[in-house]
Predict the structure.
Amino acid sequence: MAAPRDSFEEFEATSLFCPRCRRATPARKKLLLVLPSGSKYDYVCAECGTAVGGKTDNDPSAFHRTIPPPGRRLPRARADPTPLSVTLRRFSRSAVIDCPCRL
């Protein structure tokens, strides 16, 4: 006789008990970390924002999409054309800056 197969891949929570609201409320899934072993999610109460649970999946595909393939470089960030000293001078006209450094 063949072994029974699972009829589900993974669960997604739609409502969880919130200790602050003291009842089951809709839950929102928030991505916390993208790890080599999978992604870590946090479930928060949709009404008050309290953390009500967590989940780690075992799908590393999101991690491999975040790193560039070998031999390919990321584009360099362009330098800001406005020097920091000009920006600070504009700011210092409207506010007092307590800074021990010299400009």
Remarks:
- Strands lie at 15-18, 23-35, 38-45, 51-56.
